[in-house]
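Our consortium's second objective concerns turning raw sequence data into structural hypotheses that experimental partners can test. To show how far this objective has progressed, the report includes one record in full. It was chosen at random from the queue rather than selected for favorable results. The single chain below, 310 residues long, was entered without modification.
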Amino acid sequence: IRCPVKECDEDILHGKYGQHLSSHKEMKDRELYSHINKGGRPRQHLLSLTRRAQKHRLRELKRQVKAFAEKEEGGDIKAVCMTLFLLALRAKNEHRQADELEAIMKGRGSGLHPAVCLAIRVNTFLSCSQYHKMYRTVKAVTGRQIFQPLHALRTAEKTLLPGYHPFEWKPPLKNVSTNTEVGIIDGLSGLPVSIDEYPVDTIAKRFRYDAALVCALKDMEEEILEGMKAKKLDDYLNGPFTVVVKESCDGMGDVSEKHGSGPAVPEKAVRFSFTVMNIAVAHGNESKRIFEEVKPNSELCCKPLCLMLA
């Protein structure tokens, strides 16, 4: 309630109105302004009422909001009420609460996207159990699910693996399977094995090259589209595209030393990978480059093809 005393104009909570009024010593007839309770219960705070009582007390305001929404906002009462609430929060400098509410209104929710949670887990070197512990703690302490559960992260992870995206070669390639759902295959399959060539035991897991390439390009979809937009080539979505790839093989050093436990064993890990260097699209008689890797020697842009332990 706004105080009616001249040069005061202060906003007071309903319950503290009488107490505030008694502080104005200069008012002789202050009784005129204090709340008159005509018997019965004292007026309760709006939020402590039952839903039915809230509806009853606000029915006039609700009718006005409905009339405004129908006239100005195409009948969207929810949008009008939400906006009023946001403005009230921001007027009181409660911006964090307002931001969260706005995120929920726009369908984003206040939680993080599973892919973002996966990136956090990988970049902070958390094991699955460590991440799960953090997820449970945050949920218990804040009462909100900010981080996503592990199963959501695993689903997000699948989209990053070769074999997730279906594709088709036109024309079909000779001696290459048409099956696009390729998981991890034996790293030495297709190589003629003889005792002389492999004096050491090797464990290798690799992806099929074409499936890995499709996965890498799908991962770069946004960059490709942005590059086409920048060159004003929106009509050329069907290509043909030319993709230049650099292959690399990297020895990953003595594995036993890295973990620092147990005796030094002569184990070597080797990674075969490729990097997408640039992508061009045919435009008339020339080809226009729509993507170029700025750090071609960085391991961050390496797409692993095969991991082998020898």
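The partners drew two points from this record. The chain has three domains: 55-106, 114-159, 184-309. The beta strands are 185-186, 203-206, 241-254, 268-283, 286-292, 303-309. Both points have been shared with the crystallography group to help prioritize constructs.
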